[in-house]
Amino acid sequence: MTRKSVSVLVPGLPTEDGNRVPLTRLVPGQGKRGAEAFRAMDPFLLMDHFGPMVLPPGTDAGFPPHPHRGFQTLTYLIQGAFRHRDSTGGSGLLQPGGAQLMNAGAGIVHEEMPVPEHLETGGPIEGVQLWINLPKALKGSTPGYTDLQAETMPWVAIPGGRMRVLAGTWAGVTGPARTPAKIAYAHLELEAGAQFEQAIPAGWIAAAVPLHGAIRIEGTEVPADSVALLGEGDSLALEAATPVSLMLLAGEPLREPIAHYGPFVMNTYQEIEQAIQDYQAGRMGHLD
């Protein structure tokens, strides 16, 4: 196999979102290279590493009601707890090691807020949210969400560490998330010096994203909260430069036009304007 090397290395952008939740925006990331990576990360649209932080007692830090249309979100929680509610009537508890796959489709309003215990006592919170594009034919699909509890994607031991597979197949393990876009997504933890290698299907993009610690890919060091977008080749190979926690992504590009404005991702800006009008008119529903 021919190993992929790093084609673009993008530092994440520290920012806040929701109600004062600190996060690092990994995709699209900072500056011109971030824009370059955004175009090349198809079918992935956005990736945020929120936290780690400790919520103080009485906090309302979280993500209050907001709309989406035209894509899917896959929210993975590393520590803490969030409660999800949406305008379809869906609700669920997001717990450590679990995830939530939400199809915004034709339009949805949702919130992710701390559980009552955190509101009273405070507590740690950390996770990753990934936006996955929907093909044009499915941007008007019925909205909804699926809980992916930790027991459906347990840690699996691998040489020098462990892996949790959320979607696609890594190291012979297939994750539970099902998306129209063909993707593979996993959380990997390695001890210093450990190595990992995985074949990547022809035509797919691939990226490695350390959350804590650093890795090396074909001689390039990739630090925490940065995105290493990989180039030509048929395998992803990396070594842990330190003890490391990282996310691995791979996917088949949709190669469709992207029009993006805030929480809406469509194919044309006329469709974006329609999404704004539909949201303002309440046609995406409400949260009571």
TrEMBL record:
The lineage of its organism: Bacteria, Pseudomonadati, Acidobacteriota, Holophagae, Holophagales. Transmembrane segments: none annotated. InterPro entries: Pirin, Pirin_C_dom, Pirin_N_dom, RmlC-like_jellyroll, RmlC_Cupin_sf. SUPFAM superfamilies: RmlC-like cupins (SSF51182). PANTHER family: PIRIN, PIRIN-RELATED. Belongs to the pirin family. CDD domains: cupin_pirin_C, cupin_pirin_N. Residues 35-132 form the Pirin N-terminal domain. Pfam families: Pirin (PF02678), Pirin_C (PF05726). This is Quercetin 2,3-dioxygenase.
